[in-house]
Amino acid sequence: MVTSGTPEKDTRTQTVLRAEDPRSPATISDVARLAGVSKTTVSHVLSGRRPVSDATRAKVNRVIEELGFQQNFFATGLTGRRTQTIALVVQDLTNPFYPALARGLQQTMAEHGHVVLLADVGAGVPPVGAFLSEAVQRRVDGVVVAAIDISDEQIEPLRAAGIGVVTVGDPRRRTTTDVISSDDERIAADAVAYLHDQGHRRLGIVSGPPHTAPGAPRLAGYRNALRAHGLRPLKAAETTGDWTRESGAKAMTALMDLERRPTAVFCANDLMAIGALDAARVLGLAVPGDVAVVGVDDIDAASLVSPALTTIRVPAQDIGRVAGEQLMTRIGTPTGPARRVLVQHSLVVRESA
Amino acid sequence: MVTSGTPEKDTRTQTVLRAEDPRSPATISDVARLAGVSKTTVSHVLSGRRPVSDATRAKVNRVIEELGFQQNFFATGLTGRRTQTIALVVQDLTNPFYPALARGLQQTMAEHGHVVLLADVGAGVPPVGAFLSEAVQRRVDGVVVAAIDISDEQIEPLRAAGIGVVTVGDPRRRTTTDVISSDDERIAADAVAYLHDQGHRRLGIVSGPPHTAPGAPRLAGYRNALRAHGLRPLKAAETTGDWTRESGAKAMTALMDLERRPTAVFCANDLMAIGALDAARVLGLAVPGDVAVVGVDDIDAASLVSPALTTIRVPAQDIGRVAGEQLMTRIGTPTGPARRVLVQHSLVVRESA
DNA sequence: AACACCCCGCAAACCGGTTTGCAAGCAAGG
DNA sequence: CCTTGCTTGCAAACCGGTTTGCGGGGTGTT
Lengths: 353, 353
Known about the structure:
2 copies of one chain form a homodimer. With 353 residues, the first copy, chain A, is α/β, with parallel strands linked by helices. Chain A has 3 domains: 28-79, 434 Repressor (Amino-terminal Domain) (Orthogonal Bundle); 85-182 and 317-343, Rossmann fold (3-Layer(aba) Sandwich); 184-315, Rossmann fold. The first copy, chain A, contains 12 helices and 12 strands. In chain A, strands 2-1-3-4-5-11 form a 6-stranded parallel beta sheet, with helices on both faces. In chain A, strands 7-6-8-9-10-12 form a 6-stranded mixed beta sheet, sandwiched between helices. In chain A, helix 5 packs across helix 12. Residues 1-21 of chain A have low confidence and may be disordered. At the A-B interface, helix 4, helix 5, strand 2 and helix 6 of A face helix 4, helix 5, strand 2 and helix 6 of B. The structure holds a DNA duplex (30 and 30 nucleotides). Chains A, B: GO terms for molecular function: DNA-binding transcription factor activity; transcription cis-regulatory region binding.
């Protein structure tokens, strides 16, 4: 600001009406004084917990406007019950599934005027317990848990504190919280049905760890679907990976070594499917000519590999959205039976099958 | 606890010493009463702002332990200055660069006992202004801005509120805040040097938007490097994309249409480079045989495409770490000259060049 | 005119900490 | 024996809101 210097004090802010110290934010007392009413009345205007006459309300609102008054977050939190804050705990942000989930959740919560605390607990920093206890201390309204490593016991303190909890991705294990997840058995069934449609009769699977969340149901769905189509699940054609690309390549190699090798392979996620493509290339097998491959998730990379991956799309962002909506209703009614929501998937046909 | 029932009141929690309501958390008054001292003394034990005798401190600490007392976040925040909270504003979580950044930042902040508020402002929800004002209201200690859409004017209120600000990725535009970024001119120079080493003499570029953050310096670096190697930058061989895969394909097609078409193309990010690979495939050109391609970022997908992308790796997670460290020192000393930190990149040679 | 009732606003207590001013206890110094 | 100064702890005010109990004034009923 290039002006002639005023020797005394510069009035650099434009808050004309502020009577006291112009640099600290306006308080409810300032509003009350300038509006000629009591703090109580201002508070009632703000919260609407008791009726206030139109004239008074208008006057108060005008002063609030002029002063740019905002309620002090901490003063409100000291007595109030809600903090308009939720926490999101994810397993590993570098896995593309979670950022998409986070984005959907964050948008939904923002629409409801809530703010999101984020913790990626995959690397052990912060420790799960420490973060959850922070969340309790900060009186978050709710928590979305999208991290398979977290047990019911670790969640218990949240529920004890009256905090809404929604978990993502583990429909069998959680008995006490709302759960949002993909319909994992049907995902596997749909993949098998598609491959069967394409004429494949000898199928194999690269499953996830068989006792964890999406691993078990996808394996079960695969087996059931085979039987439903009159095929017999062969133990030999069931391999296991740990969701990584490398494990997928290894499992695929094993499958291709079989006497009667499968003509189509269902991989329980895209990263392992991409690994399977790696293995096929190394072995000199054409995809889908010699062997077809189907994945699950539809991560961005699925369309980048060559051949582009046919996959079952699991809409992570929508899951985040749904988790947010569910959390909002859960915050409203903390008790009540746990709800399970299955989010719809869809088949994305590309080149690999 | 299986004991004979005491008819009067059940002591279901194990907090033997709690006198009052056993279900609401312990307060500092509880601690004071049980320790036989005043609130003041307990507060001093907690904060260490005044000396307390060893005996008293031990006694107080024991009671704190027994009660599981934790300071009320809101009561502390009402008077105290620090909230152990920072905000992270990112442009678009579905761009793999940002989750990696977020992870690094979050880990660093967790090590310092801070919690991260996350906002993805790419979709306009929440609006930037609204989120930043929320951050001010919640008295965050600092903000990391990793969103190119945010202007200095929008950041000003933060600085006015004494909040530390660190921006990521825009070393020229920000004059008032600390900036962490990649060394974009040298990234381009290194890419050009590598291609020159490989014998390429006719180069082209798919640049980013020429007036935005990493777009301009990478283009400038490319031009300067050409001259440094005795080559003349050709306007015709300078195309522009908007960081997306599709725009990269389009730009590449234009380059390949040139009379004297480049034998090597530098793409200002990986997504556009992948688009360039798409275009080359469509045109029936072999990479790197007919034309070499180099990208920037080293996103996960870079190793998935075929041919695998040779690229300049920009360590997003490290940038997050560095931003966190810088923010911590900035929180400690709010004033002082703005600092710029350039994070080291590295060349990752794969198949495309 | 008397009574009940509702509407509206205020003063004061309270949430759970932090911070300040003061004083008692004690050891060292003169 | 009397200062001086340091250590240690307390009571009370304060941060900025929310909530409760109460009373004055206006309206409707009998």
